Amino acid sequence: MSDPKKVAVLVGSLRKESFSLKLAKIAAAEAPTSLSFQFLDFSKLPFFTQDLEPTPPAEWTTFREEVKAADAVLFVTPEYNRSVPGALKNAIDVGSRPYGQSVFNGKPAAVISTSIGGVGGFGSNHHLRQSLAFLNMPTMGQPEAYIGGSGGLFDASGNLINEGTLEFLKNFGTAFATWIGKHSA
Q1: Rounded to two decimals, what is the model's pTM?
Q2: Looking at the 3D structure of the chain, how many domains does it have?
Q3: Can you tell me the distance from the alpha carbon of 9 to that of 19, in angstroms, rounded to the nearest whole number?
Q4: Quick one: which of 58, 88, 147, 158 has the fewest CB in 10 Å?
């Protein structure tokens, strides 16, 4: 049996009890064992500016190396103002530079978006996909993952209480494993 494919997980919400983080952990736990997940902490990345590139901050270098070591990337994000949170966009910008040296290039990707409302982060999901297309990341199209009503999916201890969402995340993980198998280098 081959080693599991390494999946870097980028969670758009930095809040400790974020619904995105809870969903990402469940998605990782329910995915096939052919995948292993590493949650990357990008909360302390200095904002991207070309001025820092000649001697990049250590946090940039570490983040780039972590993404580079992954076989694929899973993005799990809330929607902020019909887009992705600024911290996630900054992480994408840091990883995509210097120009022509993007650590995301060619890595298979999947997107799960969520919101407390009924639309499930549709805007953030599609806005993120625009960036991923530019980054040359083959991004899984089906099943689409827009998880609405996330505020009511968990009990007081943070456990997922919605069986339909659990089943969906299991199927999503299986589809993502297949996608990675077809699109990894």
Answers
A1: 0.97
A2: 1
A3: 14
A4: 58
* d(C-alpha 24, C-alpha 35), whole Å: 14
| Mean pLDDT (whole number) for 123-138 | 97
Q: pLDDT tens digits, residue range 30-77? A: 999 999 999 999 999 999 999 999 999 999 999 999 999 999 999 999
Residue 105: domain span? 5-183
Q: What is the 3-state secondary structure (H, E, C) of 74-101?
A: EEEEECECCECCHHHHHHHHHHCCCCCC
Bridge partner residues of 82 (DSSP): none
Structural contact between residues 109 and 43, judged by C-beta atoms closer than 8 angstroms: no
pLDDT at 141 over 80: yes
Specify the CATH number for the domain of residue 49.
Answer: 3.40.50.360
